[in-house]
Amino acid sequence: MSDWKNEGKIRQSTRSRTRSSSFNWKAILILIIIVVLFLITIGCITMWACYMKKVETTNNTTTTEITYLTTTMNASKFKKWNQTAITVAGGNVQGHESNPLSRSEGIFIDKNKNVFIADRWNHRIVEWKYNATEGQIIAGGKQGNEIDQLFWPTDIVIDEQNHSIIIADYGNKRVMQWSNQKPQILIDNIECHGVALDKHGFLYVSDWNKNEVRRWKMGDYNNKGTVVAGGNNRGNQTDQLDFPAFIFVNEEQSVYISDKENNRVMKWRKDAKEGTVVAGGNGEGRKRNQLSHPHAIVVDNLGQIYVADWGNDRVMRWCEGKEEGEIVIGKNNQGNQSKQLYGPTGLSFDAEGNLYVADSLRYQIVKFEIIS
Range of 147's domain? Predict the structure, then answer.
């Protein structure tokens, strides 16, 4: 009798454990299914967001790209350009009226393909509306050091969010801001040449005399700024510069500098103590591993560097890490033909990937249309 009771207790206990074990496995299985479905849902949402971002970047210009000259462009389709130039501003005759230009340098193209020009020898900033036959003076116009005058402006950047123009007023040794026709001095006593903005709201200025690039937080100019490149006297070492002219800042806040007298382009990563040579650096010359007094630079989202190679009358494209670049525009040497450049200074792209060049010694801005 005792054995029978014990056997019944054992069977009852076994059935109880079996039911409990079955219940636990079902609960675990349901939990696993829920987790897997959750991860799949998150993955789909992430893929959709990335896809939409890619579509936006490919078919349009993002807000950052429109706002700042310094933002990288989409390089996936920017490969080759028609070699015949189309004049979009000025043209062959030097002058002071509304339609000619005089030794222009920095340029900026906005989302509507309007062209903004630092018209250096005319001491003014000019805007040429898309397909216009003459420009409109939007800053300066007379040589001088009064608040509403400019003296040899060399570069500009448009802050469209604040509806203002920031100008390197080279001859007056100051950085100006023009907003709604009202001029303001942002930074004084600086031998400025190039200006740039990044998407984090910092203004960068190259000082050719101190051979350095400094940056300021937008709106906070009551300080000396922070040195982000150079600042170690004039020289050709990797921690030095010799006449930094134009600058470009990418989304990682790396600063690219046309190191004019060293005939090279330098890249200084954020917080770096020295830079790296990413174009030129092999002495002045016409070979494909050389540059001659480089001016404006633009970097695309693949890290390809476009350089206005002033002394060689061409635009070069350099891939970082390569020993030599390739000629993009100006393969026919200097001259007055439509397929040639003569002293290219400014450089910019529109949202479609058309290339604009300040052809300074022919007193015009020309466009090269993208073909692939």
Answer: 84-371
